[in-house]
Write a structure and sequence with these properties.
single chain; alpha/beta; Rossmann fold; 2 domains; 9-stranded mixed beta sheet; 6-stranded parallel beta sheet; 18 strands; globular
């Protein structure tokens, strides 16, 4: 099968979040399954390309958007069995960061129009175009409305994956023609209209052949008023074409047996010694007591991640027999809070504002618990990584956190035998602190139970193979139409 993935970012070239990991890891798994895979992303000029695969310019063409005729240069490389195509335009992508500009709608309209022009240049016919989030959400609409009479394009089947429903790609009504050459009737009849604006994400929901999101629970949440972030009506209309497939993770990169970023490698058979050595190393570096349980937070510091619960849990633990280590950046009040917590209780707190890949891996290897009390979480990756490194996640039961963590403290629903973490349901400080208190008590008073939970966590298969096969089944279901 010939699969093209269109996204705003992808490893190893660009990353701000889990989207980048998903597109890359899923594509690698497709290659292992024998499929022909291409990835199309923007060429962001603020990246150091010297350490990345060698790129070669292969195409150059104009992208027409109403009165604009913008240049697109396509650079290509073949890496890990994947054809990467990067769309270069200095005006749109030669900036300090990937997102957050007033003209983001125009920038990614250019990207999507360029994706169509690029596909026209391919010597092969595309079977499935897999579009990710709002930055690629208009592509199914373009194929069905603007290019329905194009013999090379009108047979392409499309899948839209929603990674984060908060970001909907809002544009004005006039942008339909101005940026995409589409008839404004698509706004007037409601096909692409959401909250009185054009939404490229809604366009994808309306016109994609199939829709997916990144966990079964989040798929359900997207059909509810509370959990859908305003999309419940449109998702309910497409619920027969909608599926939740739990993300996997890159088990080559996140593997304590081979991880070059941690101090001491270890596996399932020697995890106790390996975890002890890594914890002692980390605690010595940051003046923490290695005899105490180490709780970590590795996260964007945004409200989505449950900041107020993070504050309460961190404060409680740092004064109640635990160490807390925080790695992340985001909202200024959150950064200030954790810096202040360190000043108040430096003997039990470590804080690093920013992101450091090596430090993240060392924290996974050294920690006993990961705190992840998200307000909502479509899938989540950190909880899977920490399990693989023998650290127990403490999560709120939402989205992919519910699907990937079996809680020890939820006796009625699950029981204790297969538990591999801790969880709470209600978004409030009392339940959050009660959950971490239970985890703390197990660590201190029930070492055999703690060891059993860690072993359960390390046995979980988080590889992409199962998820990739489900996506291939999804593609095949629309190819047969």
């Amino acid at each position: 099968m010939k699969i093209v993935q269109a996204a705003s970012e992808c490893l190893p070239f660009s990353k701000t979040g889990g989207l980048s990991d998903v597109v890359y890891s899923l594509s690698k798994e497709y290659v292992k399954l024998g499929h022909n895979v291409s990835i199309v992303i923007p060429y962001y000029e603020n990246i150091n390309y010297e350490k990345l695969p060698q790129l070669k310019e292969i195409y150059s063409f104009k992208v027409k958007m109403n009165w604009r005729n913008s240049d697109a240069t396509i650079v290509h490389c073949f890496y890990e069995g994947i054809d990467f195509y990067l769309i270069q335009n200095s005006s749109y992508f030669g900036r300090d960061t990937f997102y957050g500009y007033q003209d983001d709608g125009e920038r990614f309209a250019f990207f999507q129009n360029a994706v169509i022009e690029l596909i026209k240049h391919f010597a092969f016919s595309v079977d499935v175009l897999h579009c990710h989030d709002w930055q690629a959400g208009m592509l199914p609409c373009l194929l069905k409305e603007k290019y329905r009479k194009d013999n090379k394009l009108n047979e392409i089947k499309t899948v839209l994956t929603i990674h984060n429903p908060l970001f909907k790609g809002y544009l004005g009504r006039d942008s339909l023609y101005d940026l995409f050459g589409l008839d404004p009737k698509l706004f007037d009849n409601g096909s692409v209209r959401l909250d009185g604006q054009v939404s490229t994400l809604k366009a994808g929901i309306k016109f994609a052949d199939k829709i997916s999101t990144v966990s079964p629970t989040h798929a359900y949440e997207l059909t509810t008023v509370e959990g859908s972030k305003g999309l419940w009506y449109d998702m309910t209309l497409r619920q027969n074409d909608f599926i939740g497939i739990l993300n996997g993770m890159d088990t080559d990169f996140f593997n304590p047996e081979t991880d070059k970023l941690i101090k001491y490698n270890y596996g399932f058979k020697n995890y106790k010694e390996g975890k002890r050595l890594n914890k002692e190393y980390f605690c010595k570096e940051y003046n923490l007591d290695p005899k105490l349980p180490l709780f970590i937070i590795i996260s964007r510091l945004t409200s989505q991640k449950g900041l107020d619960l993070m504050y309460a849990m961190s404060d409680f633990l740092s004064y109640t027999g635990g160490n807390i280590a925080v790695l992340g950046s985001g909202e200024k009040p959150a950064e200030d809070y954790f810096n202040d917590l360190y000043k108040r209780n430096s003997k039990h707190v470590m804080v690093y504002i920013g992101y450091n890949e090596t430090l993240a891996h060392q924290m996974y290897a050294a920690s006993d618990f990961l705190i992840m009390p998200s307000a909502f979480e479509p899938c989540g990756l950190s909880q899977m990584i920490c399990q693989s490194y023998g650290s127990l996640p403490i999560v709120r039961r939402t989205g992919g956190l519910r699907d990937s963590v079996i809680p020890y403290n939820d006796y009625d629903e699950i029981g204790k035998v297969d538990a591999n973490g801790f969880a709470f349901v209600n978004y409030n400080v009392n339940d959050a602190n009660s959950c971490v208190k239970t985890a703390l008590d197990v660590f201190v008073n029930e070492p055999n139970v703690f060891a059993s939970l860690v072993e359960n966590a390390m046995k979980v298969d988080h590889s992409w193979k199962t998820s990739a096969l489900k996506y291939i089944d999804l593609y095949n279901s629309i190819k047969k139409w």
